[in-house]
Amino acid sequence: MHTTILLSIAVSMLAIFTILLLMVLKKRKEKDSETIAKDFENMVRENGLIIHYKDVFKKKMICFDKTNKKLLLLDVDHNKKMKCCVKLDEIYSCRIIQLKDKFANCIKIFLEMVYKENAHTVTFCFYDQSRDDVHERTCLLLKAQHWNQRINYHKKFWWINSNEYAL
To answer: How far is CA 2 from the centre of its chain?
Structure first.
């Protein structure tokens, strides 16, 4: 009889703890979404952007403004925060970097852009094994390849009027 009561109390406590944990995680996710939305609105307003295309990930966003020829990069990770607006005309090169461990498993996927003037680099992380689900790696690699293609297309065909092409 006492074990039944103790067991039901333990199960009840576990259920309450699980519900509280889920509520805290939901609040954190909502706060991250609000943070990235506020940062996005501020960056669009500050730089006078007209966003034509964007990809939103968990705590990251990459956007393209073909009218003003700018790229907006946002990453609101708790360890670091990245807010960057890159003029596409100033990019010398753009490439994908994949970091692998000793077993040839991909642990990070970056998009690296090098400026023409001072060879300064900007890197945007699409996949980080410590933050992202391993099942999303292929999708995020394809997204990185898509953005690399988009940026390099702009570099190659810079002379085409932005109204004449749609990426």
So the answer is: 53
